[in-house]
Design brief:
The chain contains five helices and four strands; from the N terminus they run E-E-H-H-E-E-H-H-H. It has about 120 residues and is mainly α. It folds into two domains: about 10-80, Multidrug-efflux Transporter Regulator, Chain: A, Domain 2; about 85-115. Strand 1 and strand 2 form a beta hairpin. It starts with a strand and ends with a helix. GO terms for molecular function: DNA binding; DNA-binding transcription factor activity.
Length: about 120
């Protein structure tokens, strides 16, 4: 099961929810789906996509390579093909460091509030 930001257990996400998670257009997700075999949401007969956690993890990895590291789609595809485990591990480390940074900044803000004279 997936634990999303709202702390609700959820197995499937709509394309609009996933697009909002990554701040990308839905068309970007559909394009990445064609470009990367790792992204394969379930589709209904009418073509409505349902993304599982595995799809979201793959999108997070593609997002990291393309949007954060500035790789081309071809470069990202090649990196995932040649060295998927190292690429995944690197993205996980970067993601964890971002979380730690957010936590430290929140702590800094809390200390500044405590230090402010009343």
């Amino acid at each position: 099961m997936v634990l999303n930001k709202d702390k609700n257990l959820k197995l499937y996400f709509s394309i609009s929810e996933v697009a909002q998670m990554f701040d990308v257009n839905e068309s970007t997700l559909r394009f990445w789906e064609k470009e990367f075999d790792q992204i394969s949401p379930r589709k209904t007969g009418k073509g409505t996509r349902s993304y599982r956690q595995e799809d979201i993890d793959a999108i997070r990895l593609v997002y990291h390579l393309v949007k954060e590291r500035g790789m081309t789609l071809a470069g990202a595809r090649q990196k995932l093909k040649e060295n998927p485990d190292t690429t995944i591990r690197h993205e996980e480390i970067v993601n964890r460091l971002k979380q730690i940074k957010e936590e430290l900044l929140a702590m800094k803000d809390a200390f500044e509030v405590l230090d402010t004279p009343k």
